[in-house]
Amino acid sequence: MSLRISEIFGPTIQGEGVLIGAPTVFVRAGGCDYRCVWCDSMHAVDTAYRHQWQKMSAQAVWDEVRALSGGQPLTVSLSGGNPAIQDFGPLIALGKSDGYRFACETQGSVARQWFAELDTLVLSPKPPSSGEVVDWAAFESCLTMAQARPETVLKIVIFDETDYAWAREAAGRYPDLPLYLQPGNPDLDPQQSVDLAACTDRLLWLVEKVTADRWFAARVLPQLHVLLWGNKRGV
Ligand SMILES: C[S@@+](CC[C@H](N)C(=O)[O-])C[C@H]1O[C@@H](n2cnc3c(N)ncnc32)[C@H](O)[C@@H]1O
Ligand SMILES: Nc1nc2[nH]cc(C(=O)O)c2c(=O)[nH]1
Ligand code: SF4
Ligand SMILES: [Mg+2]
């Protein structure tokens, strides 16, 4: 069984959420069951880019991760696209036998048995601005699959007031999950440098909302990689 891989890169630092700042190697899966209008990784979603994706065996992916990390165990970040539409179980098994850890980012639309083998599961349900509608039954199946095994966290992207209200509602259903909020980035052109002042303004807007509402369960974070490298690919 081969994997559809858009890119493998690193080591870099995890730029988002619970593992922010941690050195990591990314394995970006090709293909997604969603089409979020503001997706920053369309090259791993839109089938127009499928000629850039590679069919690779789990062993071939693992060899590349090992080479990039110099054989020194770290946390591997599975992202995409939606990694949950493929079988990453064999890759995780290979990595764990070498002492590596695994985190996975997914929207929570497809549950997989291999979620239970992860160290960190980041569930990122999509707010209204994405144009997608969350299937909460599927989302709950992801939680069931993970059970108590991996550290499971919520990460919600917020673009506007409607998203914010939606996030409060959504997070309210899962009071036991650690909660990370990140402002949405509307500047997606990888050739264009990011407007750092605008990034800061969006972050400040969100911080002010959260503190004014005394929403103390939330942790508000920027996308650190966007601050450092903009929308450059492979970092
Ligand atoms: C590219 S997605 C891939 C994994 C999975 N499909 C998902 O959405 O969780 C990785 C993370 O980037 C976030 N993201 C995507 N586009 C973004 C944008 N324009 N601004 C802020 N976060 C974004 C997603 O919400 C998700 O948390
Ligand atoms: N450094 C870095 N951190 C990230 N966190 C989530 C990313 C993603 O695109 O899934 C990402 C990414 O592409 N780069
Ligand atoms: S679910 Fe994730 S990868 Fe898929 S389109 Fe949305 S943000 Fe992009
Ligand atoms: Mg990204």
UniProtKB/TrEMBL annotation:
It catalyses: 6-carboxy-5,6,7,8-tetrahydropterin + H(+) = 7-carboxy-7-carbaguanine + NH4(+). Binds 1 [4Fe-4S] cluster. The cluster is coordinated with 3 cysteines and an exchangeable S-adenosyl-L-methionine. Pathway: Purine metabolism; 7-cyano-7-deazaguanine biosynthesis. GO terms for biological process: tRNA queuosine(34) biosynthetic process. Mg(2+) binds at residue 41. Its EC number is 4.3.99.3. One of its GO terms (molecular function) is magnesium ion binding. SUPFAM superfamilies: Radical SAM enzymes (SSF102114). It comes from the Bacteria. The keyword Transport does not apply. Its cofactor is Mg(2+); [4Fe-4S] cluster; S-adenosyl-L-methionine. Homodimer. HAMAP family: QueE. Belongs to the radical SAM superfamily. 7-carboxy-7-deazaguanine synthase family. This is 7-carboxy-7-deazaguanine synthase.
